């Protein structure tokens, strides 16, 4: 990481996995709970602060064991907007940018995270997202200047609304494999990815 830039990361882990019909973060993927796969593959050394926002005790324990700061989302509102806001409230005040990542992309690689960070270091005012063939996906790294807009998102909105409002700032880093961008919403999604290992 560039010595002059300080970065945070917020994992959004508060969803109820209704389409999955169970807590997908605790479901087995490649022999261990998906949350362990995702957090275990993440290059924490690239970031000054790493946060997991969750409403699930099991996820909180796993995150804490791996050195992540845990923020509890204990309200009835499990919207992405509230999860983002809780994460932002926990950030230290001196960060230059923050990566927002979901916890259901188990094939996301540390190499891609490094590429996002490198692009942001080269263009520190940009919004940098992982994508494939020019199509934006997750995760997304936002500059500090947009934190207030992210914190003001309404229920039903996500960080995509902020990206849409600032499209000239968007820079897409190409994933080496489209499967890195696959997020697991249904049990069949997880089953279809397992044979790739």
From TrEMBL:
Gene3D superfamilies: Spore Coat Polysaccharide Biosynthesis Protein SpsA, Chain A. InterPro entries: MobA-like_NTP_Trfase (IPR025877), Nucleotide-diphossugar_trans (IPR029044). One of its GO terms (molecular function) is nucleotidyltransferase activity. It comes from Anaerotruncus colihominis. Residues 9-166 form the MobA-like NTP transferase domain. CDD domains: GT_2_like_f. This is Molybdopterin-guanine dinucleotide biosynthesis protein MobA.
């Amino acid at each position: 990481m560039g010595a002059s830039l300080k970065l945070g990361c917020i994992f959004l882990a508060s969803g109820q996995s209704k389409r999955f019909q169970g807590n997908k973060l605790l479901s087995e993927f490649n022999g261990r709970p998906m949350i362990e796969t995702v957090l275990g593959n993440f290059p924490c050394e690239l970031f000054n602060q790493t946060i997991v926002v969750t409403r699930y005790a099991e996820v909180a324990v796993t995150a804490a064991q791996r050195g992540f700061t845990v923020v509890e989302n204990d309200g009835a509102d499990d919207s992405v907007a509230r999860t983002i806001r809780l994460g932002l409230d926990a950030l230290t005040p001196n960060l230059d940018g923050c990566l927002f990542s979901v916890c259901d992309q188990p094939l996301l690689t540390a190499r891609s995270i490094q590429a996002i960070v490198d692009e942001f270091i080269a263009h520190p005012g940009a919004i940098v997202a992982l994508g494939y063939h020019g199509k934006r996906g997750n995760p997304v790294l936002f500059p500090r200047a947009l934190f207030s807009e992210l914190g003001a998102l309404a229920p039903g909105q996500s960080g995509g609304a902020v990206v849409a409002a600032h499209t000239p700032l968007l820079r897409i880093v190409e994933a080496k494999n489209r499967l890195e961008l696959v997020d697991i919403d249904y049990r069949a999604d997880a089953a279809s990815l397992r044979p790739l290992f």
